[in-house]
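Exam prep: given the inputs below (a chain plus cytidine-5'-monophosphate), describe the expected output before reading on.
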Amino acid sequence: MSVTVRVPAKVNVQLAVGAARPDGFHDLANVFLAVGLYDEVTATPSPGGLRVTCSGPDAGQVPLDRTNLAARAAEALAARYGRTPDVHLHIAKDIPVAGGMAGGSADGAAALLACDALWQTGASRPELLEICAELGSDVPFSMVGGAALGTGRGEVLTELEVGGTFHWVFALADGGLSTPAVFREFDRLTEGTDVPEPVASPELLTALAKGDAHALAATLVNDLQPAALSLRPSLADILAAGTAAGALAALVSGSGPTTAFLCESAAAAEKVAETLSASGTCRSVRVTAGPVPGATVL
Ligand code: C5P
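Solution:
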């Protein structure tokens, strides 16, 4: 008996970042959109105890110890229900690793849902979301999918209506960027300045609700982008190449280093991907669309 859960990546169409809080986190207005790049996590009983394995082109970069959010999800659920986390979690990884697309968070949400189904805990949805929030700021959104506004440190979600499908190209860069390091760079760059309270953009929410790609392109914003570019200046070349190739807008995805290009249509996205691929500025490109549903048992 095993359970497989499919879980999507995300892009932040707005990432407004406030000043560092006393606990080191930052208040956010974080508009998430789930997009069609997926990891799959399979949970199988493992009498020998908790074990994590991973397959896929970047599997070598995925930690297989207890720092993996999938392992931590299994432990958290087991602890809550007074059982041992005797499960083998296999991650079939397609979401870029340390790429700013919530790949680790996705695996946490997927493992939680898979173990919940395997162990038949009977946990309620709010209970699962509470565990997600304990695991990490982006984990609740990986569970929920679609589109949502995340406030607090990103874990307090309000689901959003989306009036259409948005077409994207994602450019993968060599190596990852550490999220804490990008937030630290944000703090360094904004030191001594008055960082405004993060608020969701009404224009952006309207563009999402209407499914209007041009209006969304005009409002995309990521406050972490200067920090990501400061740590990885070569990302500017990828952004410029995608814009020159005809994308409506370009931005760094979350804390990067994946860059995201919003396109007018699926055909336009294919064209931008081809040009970006040939530009030699990035490791590889992926074409996809969103919104898509969150973690789902297959
Ligand atoms: O919540 P999560 O564990 O995914 O966050 C990883 C790191 O990113 C945190 O330790 C913190 O350094 C940074 N972070 C932040 N503010 C947020 C979310 C994350 O500073 N709202």
